[in-house]
Amino acid sequence: MTIDDAPREALRGNPRELLRWVATGAAVSRADLSRLSGLSPSTVSQRVEALINQGLLEEAGAGQSRGGRRPRQLAVPTGGAVVGAIDLGAHHARIGTLDLSGRVVQGRTLPVRIEDGPETVLGTLLAEVTALASGGAPGASLASGGAAAGALRGVGIGIPGPVQHSTGRIVSPSRMPGWNGFDVAAFCADRVDVPVIVDNDANLMALGAHRTAHAEMDHAVYIKAGTGIGSGVISSGQLHRGAQGSAGDISHCRVVADPAPLCSCGNAGCLEAVASGAALVTALREQGVPVDDLTGVLRLIDDGDRHATALARQAGRAIGEILAVVVNFFNPQVVAIGGRLADCEPLLASMRATLYERCLPLATQTLLIERVATSQDIGITGAAHLVIDHVVSAHP
Ligand SMILES: [Zn+2]
Fold it and tell me: What is the Cα gyration radius of the chain?
């Protein structure tokens, strides 16, 4: 073991990792867990007992006999225990229930009007999630508890704006009128009797993508480029939030742009004002191209429209410039871009070219630049892992 392996080694065999090995089928017995973790059988047994007592693992019949006593098989309970997840966007929310391994049990997309305000929007979505968990109608489960109370182990919520991690409060979001300062965690805690964890949507995407696609990579950066623009950072295998929870928020980093468009934050030339989906819509309209929304912009680019394609390239360059600073500074193994703009080929090509042009050769030598696998469930998957991590780490 080198010194560099030390932080990851210290985490080996922690309860969350044991749970993940069972959930992914890598381990079915205590002996498997002992082999994978390098921990002694007695330490593994202790941790497994704790996970069983929390209802996060269960013993399922007997395993393959290898002579002598049949080992007891371990499994993640599928009978009822779920976590709820809400991935809130400006116009839609993806909600769902997921099992304790992070697999989607049920998922639904609901229309949302963010301008209706936090009480209405979150109240409705929470009712829908608890109803999914109980298999009943919205409302009934909130009032009566019943089956849902036992089945639902926690709720993870992603917000398309800055979230102060320690409190679960929203701070100065740019496209969420009426939400500034709203205490999402407290509002939800009054309505459901399970842990509620709140984070921003880019962190959720990062966690979901990392756990499903790059779990073995320690250092990764995920860009979420949709109507807005943000990023989530995985450092030493963990979501890196920084002191307040704002780590990775690149939306108001300044890029070279002439003219520099004014941003909703009051500054000019912010990445969000140049390269977000909302910025592309605005810029096209100013050029006299009638376009309704980001879908319209993407359609124009698909059709080879000259103005729209030039703007997409400019957006890709701007994202690449900021990312180059991030890559030089942080030296990740992978940079992956998700969100609706990730499917925009001209944007991706110029982002990639700018990254190679502006980064140190040592930083890009083995750097993977990828798309986040397109899935409407990536956000709720991240939300579920937030909760699963919390539930597991609350019982060391
Ligand atoms: Zn700004």
Answer: 22
Q: What is the pTM of this model?
A: 0.84
Residue 7 has pLDDT above 50, yes or no: no
Query: For residue 201, what is the enclosing H or E element?
Result: helix 201-213
Q: Quick check: 115 and 177 in contact, CB under 8 A?
A: yes
Residue 318 corresponds to which tokens in the numbers above? Answer: 């701007």
Report the separation in Å between the CA atom of 267 and the middle of ligand 1, taken as the mean of its atom positions. 5
Q: Indicate the residue type of 111.
A: P
Closest CA to 381 of 138, 95, 110, 122: 95
CA–CA separation, 101 and 118 (whole Å): 30
CA 147/CA 239 separation, integer angstroms = 33
Contact 280, 273 (CB under 8 A): no
Distance from Cα 230 to the centre of ligand 1, integer Å: 12
The Cα-based distances of 77 to 25, 73, 178, 389 in angstroms read 13, 12, 40, 16
Question: Residue 194 is encoded by which pair of tokens?
Answer: 């399970």
Strand ranges for the chain from DSSP E: 58-62, 72-75, 82-88, 92-98, 104-111, 152-159, 163-164, 169-170, 196-200, 220-225, 229-235, 238-239, 334-338, 368-371
Residues 375, 103: contact at Cβ < 8 Å?
no
Q: How many CB atoms lie within 10 A of CB 2?
A: 6
pLDDT at 6: 42
Taking only the tens place, the pLDDT of each residue in 310-339 is: 999 999 999 999 999 999 999 999 999 999
Distance CA 22, CA 47 (A): 13
Q: Are 383 and 158 in contact (CB under 8 A)?
A: yes
For the stretch 149-161, pLDDT in tens is: 458 889 999 999 9
* 261 Cα: distance to centroid of ligand 1 (angstroms): 10
Gap from CA of 270 to ligand 1 centroid (Å) = 5
Q: How far is residue 137's CA from residue 135's CA, in Å, rounded to a whole number?
A: 7
Which one-letter amino acid corresponds to residue 209? A
